[in-house]
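FORM 12-B: Structure-to-Sequence Request
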């Protein structure tokens, strides 16, 4: 079995690295920008004229459409999103250029990974019906951009799904919060008071217990011991992740697979209403 890896190190989201970006932004947005979306779907094949093996690529890229030629804030926000989500090499690309570059990089990686192996197998007599499943790759990037808390914050999310020949696919998500007026990224340190971390974690724990009961179609889990009995929070205490979103109705805390639970438990998106958490926010 071919070993699993996720392509493009710059695309592997640095969840623990935080969202802080250097520099202060002094410009002000003078007009209302609006979210827009680009979609690209394509399939490439290793063998000409054959539909297997193949690499399926789907990219949905949300970005801010500048309100005018003078709207430098929206362009700056797009650049910072592209750097934070995909890597420095994509910063100066237009949205259209970014989507094309990502697709081309996926295709290049696919060919680099398996084309020589496939051609060697075919030369040695492998039949089309015997092609191993791991020769088929799939890449999906899904993004979303919408107004968040009090319409003063842009919420951005990136979900990166990749199957590159392992036992199971890999999915990583990243959340970002951006000041709509200044373009400055908002970090956990900007939002949550450290002296109230324990109280915030208690609120998150409450939502985690509700979510686990929902996933398992039960109502019997009511404590950390109950969570641990089903494999959750065995290796870590609950914590405030850098993956959070200041939404319209509450703060959503997101934990990728493996962060607080095994792969089989999936990811966790836990929303604490502002009515409960506002008192602990800066």
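FORM 12-B RESPONSE
SEQUENCE OUT:
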């Amino acid at each position: 079995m071919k070993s699993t890896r996720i392509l493009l190190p710059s695309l592997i989201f640095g969840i623990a690295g935080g969202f802080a970006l250097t520099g202060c932004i002094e410009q002000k947005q003078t007009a209302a920008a609006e979210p827009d979306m680009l979609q690209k779907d394509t399939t490439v094949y290793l063998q000409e004229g054959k539909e297997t093996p193949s690499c399926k690529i789907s990219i949905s890229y949300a970005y801010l459409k500048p309100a005018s030629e003078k709207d430098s804030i929206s362009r700056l926000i797009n650049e910072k999103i592209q750097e934070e989500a995909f890597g420095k090499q994509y910063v100066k690309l237009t949205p259209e250029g970014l989507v094309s570059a990502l697709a081309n990089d996926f295709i290049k990686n696919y060919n680099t990974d398996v084309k020589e192996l496939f051609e060697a197998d075919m030369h040695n007599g492998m039949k089309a019906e015997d092609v191993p499943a791991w020769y088929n790759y799939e890449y999906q990037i899904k993004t979303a951009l919408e107004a968040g808390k009090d319409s003063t914050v842009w919420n951005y999310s990136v979900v990166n799904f990749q199957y590159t020949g392992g036992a199971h696919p890999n999915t990583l998500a990243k959340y970002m919060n951006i000041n709509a007026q200044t373009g400055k990224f908002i970090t956990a340190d900007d939002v949550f008071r450290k002296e109230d971390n324990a109280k915030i974690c208690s609120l998150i724990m409450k939502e985690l217990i509700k979510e686990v009961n929902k996933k398992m179609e039960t109502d019997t889990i009511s404590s950390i011991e109950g969570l641990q009995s089903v494999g959750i929070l065995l290796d870590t205490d609950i914590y405030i992740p850098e993956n959070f979103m200041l939404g319209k109705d509450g703060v959503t805390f997101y934990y990728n697979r493996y962060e607080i639970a095994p792969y089989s438990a999936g990811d966790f998106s836990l929303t604490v209403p502002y009515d409960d958490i506002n008192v602990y926010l800066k």
